[in-house]
Amino acid sequence: MDFKASRTAAIVVVAVMILGAMPAARAAPPPAPAFWITPETLSFDTGHYNVGSRFNVTVWMSTLVPSYAWQVQVDFNVSQINVVRADYTGSGKSMFFTGHGTIGVSPAIDNVTGFVAHGESLVGLDQAAAGSGSLFWVEFVIMAAPVADETLTSLVLVDSNPDNTFILDSNSSSVPGVGMGFATYSLSYQPPIRDVAVVDLSFSNYRPKQGVDNVTITVVVLNNGTIPETFDVTIALATGSPIAMLNVFDLVVGSNATLTYEWNTSEVPTGVNTVTATATVVPSDINPTNNEKSRPLTVMSPTGPNTDLNGDGRVNMVDIAMVAHAFGTHQGEPRWIPAADVLPDGIINMIDIAMVARDFGK
User: Fold this and answer.
1) 170 and 229 co-located in one domain
2) Residue 2 within a domain
3) Which terminus has fewer CB within 10 Å in the chain: N or C?
4) Given the DSSP bridges, would you call strands 108-110 and 115-122 parallel, antiparallel or unpaired?
5) Same domain as 23, residue 168
6) pLDDT tens digits, one per residue of 28-78
């Protein structure tokens, strides 16, 4: 429907789009009679909003005399924002006309010229008492983002042309002296926050036999920043020997990625090895200390017994000392050593010590 046409046409077309009510906060209104917009200040930054982000405004009306119909056109800058949709603030009608029978219209949305228009009329000899209330909400989408140190600013304002915006009293005459409000829209540039982190490193087998058991290495990374990130994760031994380099592409803000690598242990020295997963430090990373995670992994001799706790191929006083140090502990306690639980029952006791002692010298 063309809201630039006659007022009569504007108030008789029955609405065909009812999207439901949306709440809005009300600011102090200008002197009645008036139309105004809330919120009056629409300040956003690129740290939280960008092209494609959406926000809402609500249009309000106040009167000093009984009213019968209204029509409002809201103008905006199409280079910065567009209208997605609009609807009455009540269920199929405005909150202003709550309790009355109404004839509604579908909102007219023009993202070329830059306006959204809406209207509503009572029926028959009805009239609404003087007062104030909300009329309709408008959902906008951001169409442009500022570059560094720039702020995009424009107005979202009630059109003052009396052919586009008016209140009709109970005699269907235009109410004179209607004030027109506006809101100020701004989108300012905020440098992105960049922070990638390695949050977990684990192995499918913490005591593999050299060259016999493969180990699945699992690395979990997190994007703590405000933009998607692409980076590499390097897995290596503490000696500097590389194991693998894994790639992460466009990791979404606030999300995790789980990376796995199947590791052949044939070239890994026996004993305790420290494996480290390191994420590439992205430019301006605010916390590079969380880009790395290390875990010990004991590579066992392919022929050694399970009582060879440090995996050097022989059972000696080192192994005895390890099980003695962990004596009396349960899984998860500070002195717990998984390898020392030779009889895997979740507790390190004299049975485990006896089993290591029995193999002493092997």
Assistant:
1) no
2) no
3) C
4) antiparallel
5) yes
6) 678 999 999 999 999 999 988 989 999 999 999 999 999 999 999 999 999
Which ranges of 67-111 would DSSP assign to H, the alpha helix?
Answer: none
Mean pLDDT across the chain, nearest whole number? Answer: 89
Contacts of 283 (CB under 8 A, 6+ apart): 194
- Lookup: tokens for 83: 């209208």
- pLDDT tens digit sequence for 102-142: 999 999 999 999 999 999 999 999 999 999 999 999 999 99
Range of the domain at 219: 192-303
Q: Are 60 and 26 in contact (CB under 8 A)?
A: yes
| One-letter identity of residue 42 | L
Query: In whole angstroms, what is the distance from residue 272 CA to residue 254 CA?
Result: 34
Could you say which of 159, 188, 217 is where a domain stops? 188
The structural domain count of the chain equals 3
Q: Which two structure tokens, joined as six digits, stand for 206? A: 């913490």
Best CA proximity match to 276, nearest among 198, 339, 196: 198
244 and 293 part of one domain: yes
